[in-house]
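Listing S7. Sequence submitted for prediction.
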Amino acid sequence: MPYVFVSTQIRLETGPTNVGDEYSDSALMVYLGARKTTMLGNNFSEYHVDDPPRLVLDKLEKIGFRVVTMTGVGQTLVWCLHKEAE
């Protein structure tokens, strides 16, 4: 799984941070300390951590991920990261 999306709401820059969906690499989610949740009314699950995005990005960099791009979408900040295949 070479790509990861990290996102947070602009007003919640200190966390929580969304780090994956129900198809994300479970070993990576354990490394990040993420918990899987399903919001009321959604038919999909997401992984969240209480850490702010900066700490999540630091953790991902330590294991070889690099930020490809970052953008703001409405009230959401989104980072796309990539890791070279081993």
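Caption to Listing S7: primary sequence and predicted structure tokens for the chain studied. The longest strand covers residues 66-73. The CA atoms of residues 4 and 81 lie 5 Å apart.
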